[in-house]
Every structure is written in structure tokens, then in C-alpha cells.
Amino acid sequence: MVDIQDFFKVPSRSAVRKAGSLIKESLLGLAHPEPLELERAYHTLFEWRACHAYVLNAFQAVVRQKLGALNLRHALVAQRLKRMPSIIAKLTRFPKMQADRMYDVIGVRVILKNVTEVDRFHEALRHMKSRHTLQEPVKDYIRHPKDDGYRSLHLVFSYHNDRHPQLDGLKLELQLRTRLQHSWATAVETLGMLRQASFKTGQGDEATREFFRLSGALFSWQETGIMPDYCRGMTPQDLCLRIRDLDRELKLMQTLNAVVVSAQYIEKKQQNFQGFHVLELNAQQGKTQLTAFLSSQLPQAESFYKAREQETQADPAVAVVLIGAGDIRQIKKAYPNYFLNSREFRANLDAALGDFSVCAF
Q: Do residues 329 and 350 share a domain?
């Protein structure tokens, strides 16, 4: 484990809050700070995010241990450090959001076979003896899907570390989802990367958002028998007909099917590589670059991540993220959107439409 004292200086919560507010007000035109002052504010936010990299590495080990104890060894675990553009966008999108209270700078995701396994793992986490505190309430987007079609179970933990109390209280988000839910969510992100529009935050055209809302509702009905509130009064057959009409108009499946990505990466001989990768997608060029770091190289990984974000910030077609998801095969399963791969979503939607006696794509 990397010692945090050899990694970076942990900024105070008040400094982080002040930095986030200054950046937000500057972007909204409410303040006009000097360039050096703004640069320092960004530096503080980068340091704050780096603290979470240490926490991320520690907490994912807890998750993997619990999965092993439950014999859920086929589960896919992935973790990522929130992209700085996403942090800034969240600060500006929500007026009351404060940087030091952001709970999803760390994201750990567990992908399981079905809802039964999700519920089983969730129940185990609720009764887990741990120094890290599970915050209530848990957001159950499986029984209560979001209006955009998103489904998953979100848990927020408050981190605790006896050795480094300066990290106490840092929040991290744990997402539990099924393979079906994961295929839908990554298809939304894939198309968003292709169109350079964040559909998951309400951007993009209404017709495309409706396509994903309805396909999410169809998956919900297929998986749990729950029809989301936003589709109340519709039958599964109604959903299928409208999805087909929208695709005929928008040719979304054709667009997703036509994408080919050239992946350039450092292939690791270890089948179960548990280090970190900086994953970089250029959606316009259709290329994905992976740079690998061992677990002991976390400081170097975070520094490289920061540098690549800053070097590519002017290009909206480029997305960079620091992740931990094992070897290249696991990475492709956990982050298919960074390979513009929606193959599983297309197969799942085809199967769902077939289940309800509607011609597939």
C-alpha cells in the first residue's frame, strides 16, 4: 500500500470548498478571479481528488474480500476516479453542490448476474462489520428507475482510516448493477461519447433520450416486472413498437453497430493484473489508449492522469479516466463505452424485443 504521506499534501476541507466555489463562480460569470488565483483553485481540487485515489485503492479491496466470502467470484469489480471535467460540471449544474461534500469522486462498481445477486450482496454490505459507515438512505434505482431509464443500486460509504485520520469522512459511491443494467448504461455513455453530448445528464436530443428511456423501461419489465412511473399505462408491446419507430427514425442501432475502435495498450502477462490504468478514448479517431501502472505506482498513475486531462482538455472528443479493473479483458467488460462497444446492449435489446413477439433489429 502506498503511504499517503509520500503521495501528496491533503488540503483542508475549507480550502477545497473555497476552491470549488471560486471555480464555479468563475465559470458562471459571477466572479472574475486573477489567473494565478484560479490556477491555485484548480490545483487544490486536483490535490483533493488525489486523496480519493488512496481511498479508492483501499476500499476496493474490502469489496473484493466480501464478494469472495459470498462466493460471488464471477462478479466484475471496477473502480474509477471521477474525471475533473465531470467534477466541474457537477459543481456548476447543482447550485448547492460544494466540492468538499461531493460523494462520488470515488466510484466503485460491482456488476453481478441478476437482481437476486445484487440484493444478496447489498444485504451482506448492510450487515458488514467495517470501519467504513454506510450512509442512509440507499438509492434504489432498480425498484424506482430514474426518469431517464437508468437503473442501479447506489450506496454511499463514509471512509475511516485510523492511520490517516485526515482522510476520515471522505465519501465514496458503490454502485451495484446487473449485467443487463450495465449494458444499458454503457450504451448511453457510448452514444454520448460519439455525439459529444452527455445524455445521462440530460443533454442531447429528446428523441434519443426517449429511445433510452423506453429501452430502460423494457429491460426493467423484463428483469423485475416493474414498469417505471414514466411509462405508466404502457404495455411491453407498446414499448417495443415505439422503440422500433424511434430507431427507424434515428438509426441509433446502426450507428452503434458501425463503430470500430482501435485499441492500443500495454498487454500484461498476468491474467489477474490488479493495478491501475489510465484509459483514454478519442471518439473522433476511434482509438483507445491504455497506460498501465502497478498498485505500488498509484502516485505516478494519478500524476499521469492529471497531466493527460490537462493536455487534452481542449478536445471534447477525448475522455480520460483513471481506473482499476484487472486485466485488459476485464477492462473491456467494465468500461465498454471507452471502446465504443455496445454489442451487449444491442444483443440484450434484440432479445427483449423478441421476447415480446416484436421483430428484432
A: no
The counts of H helices and E strands in the chain are 11, 10
Residue 263 has pLDDT above 70, yes or no: no
Q: Nearest-5° angle of CA 156, CA 302, CA 130?
A: 30
- pLDDT band of residue 38 (cuts 50, 70, 90) is very high
Q: Any idea what the Cα angle at residue 114 is, between residues 113 and 115, rounded to 5°?
A: 145
Provide the CATH number for the domain around residue 157: 3.30.460.10
Alpha carbon distance 315, 321 (integer Å)? 15
Please tell me the predicted confidence (pLDDT) of residue 354.
86
**Does the pLDDT at position 8 exceed 60?**
no
- How does 107-130 read in b/e, with b if 16+ C-beta sit within 10 Å? bbbbbbeebebbeebbeebeeeee
Question: Within a 10 A sphere around the Cβ of 354, how many other Cβ atoms?
Answer: 12
pLDDT tens across 176-235, in order?
999 999 999 999 999 998 888 888 888 889 999 999 999 999 999 999 999 999 998 999
Cell of 343: 454489442
Task: State how far the Cα of 299 lies from the Cα of 124, in Å rounded to an integer.
Answer: 32
**Whether the bond into 236 is cis, omega within 30 of 0:** no
Domain containing residue 110 = 4-184+260-341
Residue type, 266: I
Tell me whether residue 194 is in a domain: no
308 and 221 share a domain? no
312: pLDDT strictly greater than 70: yes
Contact of 318 with 310, CB cutoff 8 Å: no
Residues, the chain, total? Answer: 361
Regarding whether 110 and 215 lie in a shared domain, the answer is no
- 251 & 164 share domain: no
**Residue of 235, 136, 223, 187 lying closest to 344 (CA atoms):** 187
Can you give the pLDDT at residue 358? 47
21 and 54 in a single domain? The answer is yes
Q: Is the pLDDT of residue 250 over 80?
A: yes
